[in-house]
Write a structure and sequence with these properties.
The complex is a heterodimer. By secondary structure, chain A is of the alpha+beta class. Chain A has three helices and eight strands.
Chain lengths: 141, 182
């Protein structure tokens, strides 16, 4: 038997009505970010996938709905790597030996504006509009 | 023995108070331990953490005030980054923590009576993640990072904020007696 065990009631009693406003605010931010991206920014035409290491562009891929499968390996020095694959419509990180594994676990990205990041190795895989190919100073969605 | 009255105390404990100094040191240590241990829990976003150290920020804020909480934050960020061996985490911790502390201070001071700690800590956890995301976006130079990871981090912070608030609430119940009595 656990002594001094807090019952579930006591947890629920902690709630006050105004707390719902706080929670609602967080949900609002979540929805705002999601909708802003999907409605205004993210699209699936004219996409360019850019792979960067330490802020320098390593390689760019043109994404098309029916493109061939391709694999690309980023060598971040000292045996550290990030392996990237392109399939169908997506680009994703298939493996890496970073300690996070956040990049691998994130899965595929498809819409312009999305990005996959490997923080420890400073690698960014991002999708952007095609005209960035000409002038790297502009960001187009 | 004659006792000297030192009119120019250079010892920091004379300015702050020995008990408070020790308490803050313990809080910073606890925050460092929490920070270290929560790093082992996998999180689906780069550089973002569960934000369990917000428990200590909340406790410091309630017991001592925003200035002390800021001190704890800076100490925790710098020491945590140096000890963990990743200097970048100092930047992320500071930016996320500063934003989260600002929001928590404002909410706590204005609405102390109407909200419990649960709401404050949820808001704090959410803005901690927002701050970290903004820093990550700035560091890598792409705003896409922000929008890609924002929704799921917000969802996460709802849960982690609730847990943090509950933990802080029950911790404060015990701690309030210890701190106010000499």
């Amino acid at each position: 038997m656990i002594k001094n065990r807090v019952k579930l009631n006591e947890y629920v009693k902690l709630f006050k009505p105004a707390d719902a406003i706080m929670y609602g605010l967080v949900v609002l931010i979540m929805l705002a970010g999601f909708l802003n991206f999907r409605l205004l920014m993210g699209n699936t035409y004219n996409r360019l996938a850019i792979v960067e290491l330490n802020g320098e562009v390593l390689k760019t891929f043109v994404l098309e709905p029916e493109m061939e499968q391709e694999e690309f390996r980023v060598d971040a020095g000292e045996g550290q790597y990030v392996a990237i694959a392109l399939q169908y419509d997506y680009i994703m990180v298939i493996s890496s030996n970073c300690r996070d594994q956040v990049c691998v676990g994130w899965g595929r990205i498809r819409y312009s504006g999305q990005a996959i990041v490997c923080l420890p190795y400073r690698v960014v895989v991002r999708i952007t509009g095609r005209s960035e190919e000409e002038s790297l100073d502009d960001i187009t969605w | 023995m004659k006792k000297f009255k030192d009119n120019n105390p250079t010892d920091i404990s004379a300015k702050i108070g020995t008990k408070k100094l020790i308490a803050l040191a313990l809080i910073v240590s606890t925050a460092l331990i929490i920070h270290f241990l929560e790093g082992f829990i996998p999180v689906p976003a780069p550089g973002a953490k569960l934000g369990l150290a917000n428990i200590m920020m909340l406790i410091t804020l309630v017991l001592y005030g925003p200035l002390e909480a800021l001190t704890v934050l800076v100490l925790r960020s710098v020491l945590g980054g140096l000890l963990a061996g990743n200097p970048w985490s100092i930047l992320y911790s500071l930016s996320g923590g500063f934003l989260s502390l600002a929001v928590m201070t404002f909410t706590y001071c204005k609405f102390k009576d109407k909200v419990s700690l649960l709401g404050i800590s949820t808001l704090g956890a959410a803005f901690h993640n927002i701050g970290q995301l903004m820093t990550a976006s700035a560091v890598f130079g792409t705003i896409g990072i922000f929008y890609t990871y924002l929704p799921i981090l917000m969802l996460f912070s709802l849960a982690s904020g609730t847990f943090t608030g509950v933990a802080a609430h029950f911790a404060l119940k015990r701690l309030e007696q210890i701190v106010t009595t000499v």
